[in-house]
């Protein structure tokens, strides 16, 4: 089932807003970085370029993931958000390697940095903008359950910390020029650049792991699975057992399937009504879910192991009474 129209509109607007802010920051950092000759500011410009590319990928992903299921994609298009997260992680690894290479060269041949106040200013603006935009992206990602927006948000939140690191490094160099003119702190510039690289590498590893888990169809988190089981158990007294519960996630969509054992004398109409009500209840808990329920008859006699494991009728008591063969 596709996400609601309002969720799609929120995701698209949030991703578009991220593209706009990252475009501004990338251009600003490139201009300032080349003007003052700071490798740390240029490394942050590359970081923002990666953020911009990630935001563009996220925008494409949230647009595509909202498309309804079709003949070629019967389970919907949600996986595109997970794939976009994996692509973003690869881009971060490449950017980090480039930053480290440039910083090591700067260590071997440090050059004076001019007009440091411009570097400090652009880093301060970058930190503030990215903090506000990332907070907005996290809020919309939580509302719409979007891994693409969450990944984009983590890109920007990492940029907040790295920009602050560069800002502190440049500010320290500027202050020491006046207070300790004989002390050479130019090494702080490439050191800050390497710090940027290490932090974004950490973000890349975390994003890779998260994307890989979803691509491998890992089950939903334990708290969500337990909530589903509790809801099933408490919904209908006529349910004898719930077993073979399987779950997975595809972008914002959850796929949930399980078997229900009901009284063998129950009519097809009544048992079907139970499945419809349960689907509605679960979808209210997790909008956009695709729920598949298999009904089985229960006569309290020939119980297989899977059914017994999810029995609501105290299997042990029935075994002791000899009602189970």
Structure characterization notes:
The structure is a single chain. The protein has helices at residues 5-36, 39-65, 79-108, 116-144, 147-179, 188-215, 222-235, 268-285, 305-309, 315-320, and strands spanning 239-250, 253-263, 290-298. By secondary structure, the protein is mainly alpha-helical. The chain folds into two domains: 5-215, Cation efflux protein transmembrane domain (Alpha-lytic protease prodomain-like), CATH 1.20.1510.10; 222-320, Alpha-Beta Plaits, CATH 3.30.70.1350. Strands 1-2-3 form a three-stranded mixed beta sheet. A hairpin with a 2-residue loop joins strand 1 (239-250) and strand 2. Helix 3 (79-108) runs antiparallel to helix 6, helix 4 runs antiparallel to helix 5 (147-179) and helix 5 (147-179) packs antiparallel against helix 6 (188-215). The longest helix has 33 residues, at 147-179. The chain is elongated, with a radius of gyration of 27 Å. The two termini are 42 Å apart. The relative contact order is 0.12. The model is unreliable at 315-325 (pLDDT under 50).
How do the helices and strands line up, and which of them pair or pack?
Blueprint: H1 5-36, H2 39-65, H3 79-108, H4 116-144, H5 147-179, H6 188-215, H7 222-235, E1 239-250, E2 253-263, H8 268-285, E3 290-298, H9 305-309, H10 315-320
Parallel strand pairs: 2-3
Antiparallel strand pairs: 1-2
Helix pairs in contact: 1-2, 1-4, 2-3, 2-5, 2-6, 3-5, 3-6, 4-5, 5-6, 7-8
């Amino acid at each position: 089932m596709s996400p609601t129209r309002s969720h799609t509109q929120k995701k698209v607007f949030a991703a578009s807003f991220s593209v706009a802010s990252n475009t501004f920051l990338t251009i600003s950092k490139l201009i300032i970085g080349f003007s003052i000759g700071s490798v740390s500011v240029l490394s942050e410009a590359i970081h923002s370029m990666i953020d911009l590319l990630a935001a563009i990928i996220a925008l494409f992903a949230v647009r595509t993931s909202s498309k309804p299921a079709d003949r070629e994609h019967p389970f919907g298009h949600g996986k595109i958000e997970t794939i976009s997260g994996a692509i973003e992680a690869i881009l971060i690894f490449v950017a980090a390697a480039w930053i480290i290479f440039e910083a090591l060269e700067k260590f071997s041949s440090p050059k004076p940095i001019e007009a440091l106040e411009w570097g400090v200013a652009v880093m301060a603006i970058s930190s503030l903008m990215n903090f506000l935009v990332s907070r907005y992206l996290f809020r919309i990602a939580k509302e719409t359950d979007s891994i693409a927006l969450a990944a984009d948000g983590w890109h920007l939140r990492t940029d907040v910390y790295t920009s602050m690191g560069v800002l502190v490094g440049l500010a320290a160099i500027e202050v020491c020029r006046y207070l300790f003119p004989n002390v050479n702190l130019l090494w702080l510039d490439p050191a800050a650049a390497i710090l940027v690289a290490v932090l974004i590498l950490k973000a890349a590893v975390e994003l890779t792991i998260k994307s890989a888990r979803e691509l491998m169809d890992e089950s939903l988190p334990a708290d969500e699975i337990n909530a589903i089981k509790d809801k099933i158990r408490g919904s209908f007294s006529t349910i004898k057992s719930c077993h073979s519960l399987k779950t997975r996630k595809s972008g914002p969509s959850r796929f949930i399937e399980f078997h229900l054992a009901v009284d063998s004398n129950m009519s097809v109409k009544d048992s079907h009504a139970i499945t419809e009500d349960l689907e509605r209840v679960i979808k209210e808990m997790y909008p956009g879910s695709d729920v598949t329920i298999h009904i089985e008859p229960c006569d309290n006699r020939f119980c297989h192991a899977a059914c017994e494991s999810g029995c609501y009728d105290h299997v042990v008591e029935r075994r002791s009474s000899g009602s189970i063969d």
